[in-house]
Amino acid sequence: MKVNGISHRTIWLKPGDDSVVQVIDQTKLPHAFEVVNLTCVAGVCRAIRDMTVRGAGLIGATAGFGMYLAALHAPDSRFDEALHEAVTALKATRPTAANLAWAVDQMLAAIGVDGSQAKRRLLALHAAQAIADEDVAHCQRIGKHGLTIIKNLAALQPTRTINILTHCNAGWLAFADYGSATAPIYAAHDAGINLHVWVDETRPRNQGASLTAWELGQHGVPHTLIADNAGGHLMQHGLVDMVITGADRVTRCGDVANKIGTYLKALAARDNGVPFYVALPSSTFDFTLGDGVAGIPIEERGADEVRWVSGKNAQGLVESVQICPDATNARNWGFDVTPARLVTKLICERGVCDATETGIAALFAQDR
Ligand code: MRU
């Protein structure tokens, strides 16, 4: 995607230096665009944990490059031991996004157990790049499938603006490029469809306000920021034609873990007859789980993310302020689970399917 007219991915190797991985520091957006160098697996773990990088697809791609850096620096004498330490460290960073463990396992398989360390380091480099490239290709295909859905909706009401509500950031910043929930939006906007996006601010970390609003703005997509609690009201008044969210983990039966608050949007959408779509690449499915509410691990982060907010003050300086009494306790669950029954369709790079065990299995039938 373009930032101030220049094409960027969210992760890349430093030109001329394959030992440095570069990412956009997402904790600084939208007020500053800063690039951070990652040079070792410990740095990669830190970047994932403190959310310098975030979003299911990008967490996976970053973990892939983390495995590459682990291979690059692993001493020949304990190469496999060092790789397995990296696997454990990376998988422990954030628990909910399925793409993290998926990418680490892909890397282990690609690096293999045979051949010289030099050859296996090269395999690691190619595999990490392949994960990022595949992420981009999958998001583009999600965009194409989602575009058909938006086109069909627009054809029913040709003179009206199509209003799409999204929650959190499943945009290009959450992947290597394009995004999952935003890929159909970008494709529809580029195809000339008259659309507008309601952007949930997405407390407590405000990824909607700081990231989704920023990237839609960079692409010229009309959008309006709303408080998290506004969605139901807008739906009751016919101001939302469809909801599209991303996903961090989806079970084989179609239950969807996504940013906290997604479930409430899905309930409001069902009550108001608004279609609720979830966009995801194959790497977000977790076929080991059936019941998402019982089985998906939900990250609980520090209470201060709820107690404090940060933003730009009237002087243009970024600062953090406490929004509750000094003694107030807080809890901070990062994700919730939307049961499959509330999901209209899943939009995957493989196609569009029902959020059911049969619908999902049919998408993967060719793999069996
Ligand atoms: O905590 P984050 O920012 O890593 O959460 C991920 C998200 O932004 C959302 O849950 C998103 O919709 C899915 S990520 C493709």
Write up what this structure looks like:
With 368 residues, the chain is α/β, with parallel strands linked by helices. It has two domains: 133 residues, translation initiation factor eif-2b, domain 1 (Four Helix Bundle (Hemerythrin (Met), subunit A), Up-down Bundle); 227 residues, Translation initiation factor eif-2b, domain 2 (Rossmann fold, 3-Layer(aba) Sandwich), CATH 3.40.50. The protein is built from twelve helices and 18 strands. The protein has a seven-stranded mixed sheet, with helices on both faces. The protein has a four-stranded mixed sheet with strand order 13-10-11-16, covered by helices on one side. Strand 1 and strand 2 form a beta hairpin. Helix 1 packs antiparallel against helix 2 and helix 5 packs across helix 6. The relative contact order is 0.12. Bound molecules: 5-S-methyl-1-O-phosphono-5-thio-D-ribulose. The site of 5-S-methyl-1-O-phosphono-5-thio-D-ribulose has 17 residues, from helix 2 and strand 11.
Kindly list the characteristics that best describe this protein.
single chain, 368 residues, alpha/beta, Four Helix Bundle (Hemerythrin (Met), subunit A), Rossmann fold, 2 domains, 7-stranded mixed beta sheet, 4-stranded mixed beta sheet, 12 helices, globular, binds 5-S-methyl-1-O-phosphono-5-thio-D-ribulose
